[in-house]
Automatic annotation (TrEMBL):
SUPFAM superfamilies registered for this protein in UniProt: (Trans)glycosidases
Cited InterPro entries: Aldolase_TIM (IPR013785), Alpga-gal_N_sf (IPR038417), Alpha-glycosidase_related (IPR050985), GH (IPR017853), Glyco_hydro_36 (IPR002252), Glyco_hydro_36_C (IPR031705), Glyco_hydro_36_N (IPR031704), Glyco_hydro_b (IPR013780)
Species for this entry: Agromyces albus
GO biological process: carbohydrate catabolic process
Comp. bias intervals (Basic and acidic residues): 200-209
Catalytically driven reaction(s): Hydrolysis of terminal, non-reducing alpha-D-galactose residues in alpha-D-galactosides, including galactose oligosaccharides, galactomannans and galactolipids
EC number(s) from the headed UniProt entry: 3.2.1.22
Keyword Hydrolase part of the UniProt annotation: yes
Name of the featured protein: alpha-galactosidase
Pfam families xref list: Glyco_hydro_36C (PF16874), Glyco_hydro_36N (PF16875), Melibiase (PF02065)
Stretches assigned to the Glycosyl hydrolase family 36 C-terminal domain: 622-706
Region (Disordered): 190-212
Domain Glycosyl hydrolase family 36 N-terminal: 38-267
């Protein structure tokens, strides 16, 4: 076995002792030990331990050497990165399955291990199997773990599970993950960590409205800004297992992997199976710290959308299936007049698609509705300086469609019958190369003909009885969908893609490897949306989260809200409008136009800054803030979702700024100031601004109006001066000494 390391520090651990490998980056250390033989054990995943000398390494191993407990194996046993019974582990195994009926119970022998300061790659074998385990710590301290198993024998290998695990700190006693449903995605679920192996399974064939999204283990009472946390996310868009093992004889383990169905992954000689990346994130500054690490990691990707995210007008809630050129042209004209930059034609443009019961899968423009194709609309959009986006739902067909009549054998279904319909649709077997080719060709043809800038890629049903080539087919289908998207992007490098799935049922880092934003939910009700976005923001930075202003009466809940809260909510995201704005009053259009001006002015901040969710001492209201990385500029949104206990609301603290610098604080000009419930709003609001040090803003705060539920205010803090002595404050008056 050779273990190599490249470290700059002379004292850092090198080959000797070769038993320890330390990955360090972004304030995180991961310490892997080979001391027990076999696959490595993770001795530490968490706060950076600093440089360790080879002497420290030996002592660290010695200090953590296990003793033998009562009623247990007679010798100490290692908790490895792929734990299993042969090690002595009796929790959920990391690998499971069988080789010709014989259970997979490997005693791994490491044949190679290479590492540098941020990566460890280990190859190990046992009779008939090879495993390659990769641990990659990125510059932001986010750890990605992937295992690849290869059948190196002759018999068939059937995998039942291949999952990544990492140990978390023994101080973590509480768990958080997410549930949800259509229009209520990413609902947090908190619970105590209890003994045993607990598994969250999803079997929806897509990520799901109720996807766990992140499984977090944390110290008691962890919240947005406090607590030490260990979390895992699976970068995968289909069935998943999120797991936590808390056994009396071992450190707690978090993990995730694909949920594999019986017979789904069968490897012939020489064949391999690679897991999706399990993304592990540690934070010592609560959920905002965790989110910040993830956001930084995503923003460092070379393909991360880094141009200003355009203001979108999506036609769905404006016209649904009622496509009429004159109406859509008026919509485009109105959109352009108020500053919209991208016009997205949603569902309903293709042959036979007058309702959701027909036409899905026939990706040709409906000539009855569009006798000249989409050209007149595309031209109208382009002439007004906007980009053109188009909706597709490539993986699906209506039973009433030409493609299904022609190719009834193209379904992802058991041989004997189709699955139950869902929104009157069935799923195509994209792992069938004919289907994949068809999709790539049809979508490419439309994208090419109209020079489409943006595709809204929808997926509107769970997969059920998904079978490909006579066996469980979710894995093959999902990988094939990824490949189709990759091919389309390769053919149209400038095309941007939005991931949508009945709203937010495909929000994961697997789909975001190949798409540019997600549609977080089908609800544009701002009150519902505030919660959905708040938790989507734990995984994703704002530029990746589509958020639209809908009509006053939300189509999904019937709730009526003012434009102010709808604007403030949609502002914090990749913003747009989904509303028949041809019906808006002139006053509403003026307000929308000024909101767009605000968004264009602050999107650079929103899409690069640090996102935090400060606590506010008034239940019923939430605070979301974005602070520029250099702390020169920040936005704080206070939104009230229900009444609170206070007759006079507590001052709103504005944390995160440079404590010694001074900031001008004012409500964002261009957004409606909430009417509030009190007759006398805080006097400073009438004055328009305050200038205060970051320390005062963080620890004392400023008064805000007593809002009605469904009102919000966005305050802006701008650096005035970092020189404290250029300002003075006397008896409540704040003045500025001009230089
Ligand atoms: C579900 C999406 O979430 C909606 O935004 C819309 O695109 C519809 N599908 C269209 O069928």
């Amino acid at each position: 076995m050779t273990i190599t390391g490249e470290r700059t520090d002379e004292d850092a651990i090198r080959d000797e002792p070769s038993q320890l490998h330390v990955l360090r980056a972004g304030g995180v250390s991961v310490v892997a030990s080979f001391a027990a033989g076999g696959l490595p054990e993770i001795l530490h995943w968490g706060r950076d331990l600093g440089d360790l000398t080879s002497g420290d390494a030996g002592e660290l191993i010695a200090g953590l050497e296990r003793q033998v407990s009562s009623s247990a194996t007679d010798a100490p046993w290692p908790l490895t990165i792929l734990p299993g019974e042969p090690d002595g582990w009796e929790g959920r195994p990391g690998i499971a399955g069988h080789i010709a009926g014989v259970p997979i119970l490997p005693r791994w022998h490491v044949i190679d291990a290479t590492s540098d300061a941020t990566t460890l790659v280990v190859d190990a074998v046992d009779a008939g199997l090879t495993v390659t385990s990769e641990l990659r710590l990125d510059a932001e301290g986010v750890l990605r773990v992937r295992h690849t198993v290869t059948n190196s024998g002759d018999a068939l290998v059937e995998l039942a599970a291949l999952e990544a695990t990492m140990p978390f700190g023994s101080s973590a006693t509480e768990l958080l993950d997410f549930g949800g449903r259509w229009t209520r995605e990413r609902t947090p679920q908190r619970r105590a960590l209890v003994q045993g192996s607990q598994v969250r399974e999803t079997r929806r064939g897509r990520t799901g409205h109720d996807a766990p999204t992140l499984l977090v283990a944390g110290t008691p009472g962890f919240d947005a800004s406090g607590g030490e946390l260990w979390a895992v996310h699976l970068a995968w868009s289909a069935d998943a297992v999120y797991r936590v093992d808390s056994l009396p004889e071992a450190q707690g383990m978090l993990g995730a992997g694909e949920l594999l169905r019986a017979g789904e992954v069968v490897l012939a000689a020489g064949e391999s199976f690679s897991t999706p990346d399990a993304v592990f994130v540690w934070s010592d500054s609560g959920l905002d710290g965790l989110g910040d690490r993830l956001h930084r990691s995503l923003r460092a990707r070379p393909w991360h959308p880094n141009r200003p995210q355009p203001v979108v007008l999506n036609t769905w809630e404006a016209v649904y299936f009622d496509h009429d050129l004159a109406k859509l042209e008026r919509l485009a004209q109105t959109a352009a007049a108020i500053g919209v930059e991208r016009f997205v034609l949603d569902d309903g443009w293709f042959s036979g698609r007058r309702t959701d019961r027909a036409g899905l899968g026939d990706w040709t423009v409906d000539r009855e509705v569009w006798p000249q194709g989409l050209h007149p609309l595309v031209d109208a959009v382009r002439e007004r300086g906007m980009e053109f986006g188009l909706w597709f739902e490539p993986e699906m067909v209506n039973e009433d469609s030409d493609v299904m009549r022609r190719h009834p054998d193209w379904l992802l279904a058991p041989p004997a019958h189709a699955a139950r319909t869902w929104r009157h649709q069935q799923v195509l077997d994209v792992a069938n190369p004919e289907v994949a080719d068809h999709l790539v060709e049809r979508i490419s043809a439309i994208v090419g003909e109209y020079g489409i800038d943006y595709v809204k890629w929808d997926q509107n049903r769970d997969l059920m009885e998904a079978m490909h080539a006579g066996r469980a087919g979710v894995d093959a289908h999902t990988r094939a969908v990824y490949a189709v998207i990759d091919e389309i992007r390769a053919r149209h490098p400038h095309l941007e893609i939005e991931s949508c799935a009945s709203g937010g049922a495909r929000v994961d880092l697997g789909i975001l490897e190949r798409t540019d934003r997600v549609w977080a939910s089908d609800t544009n009700d701002p009150i519902e949306r505030l919660a959905i976005q708040r938790w989507t923001e734990l995984l994703l930075p704002l530029e990746l989260i589509g958020s639209h202003i809908g009509p006053a009466r939300a189509h999904t809940t019937g709730r009526v809200t003012d434009l102010g809260i709808r604007m403030s909510t949609a502002l914090f995201g990749s913003a747009g409008i989904e509303w028949d704005i041809t019906e808006c009053s002139p006053e509403e259009l003026v307000l929308l136009s000024s909101w767009i001006t605000v968004y264009k002015r602050v999107r650079g901040l929103l899409h690069s800054g640090r996102l935090i969710h400060p606590e506010y001492a008034d239940s019923g209201a939430t605070v979301t803030a974005v602070i520029a990385q250099d702390r020169s500029h920040a936005l704080y949104r206070l939104a009230r979702t229900e009444t609170g206990p206070h007759a006079l609301p507590p001052p709103l603290r504005l944390p995160g700024l440079d404590r010694s610098a001074r900031y001008r604080v004012s409500p964002v000009v261009g957004l409606p100031v909430p009417r509030g419930l009190d007759v006398t709003p805080p006097p400073w609001l009438a004055r328009g601004e305050l200038i205060l040090p970051g320390s005062v803003l963080a620890d004392v705060g400023v008064r805000v109006p007593l809002f009605a539920p469904a009102e919000a205010i966005v305050l802006e803090a701008q650096l005035v001066s970092s020189a404290p002595d250029r300002h003075y404050s006397i008896a409540g008056a704040v003045g500025r000494v001009d230089a």
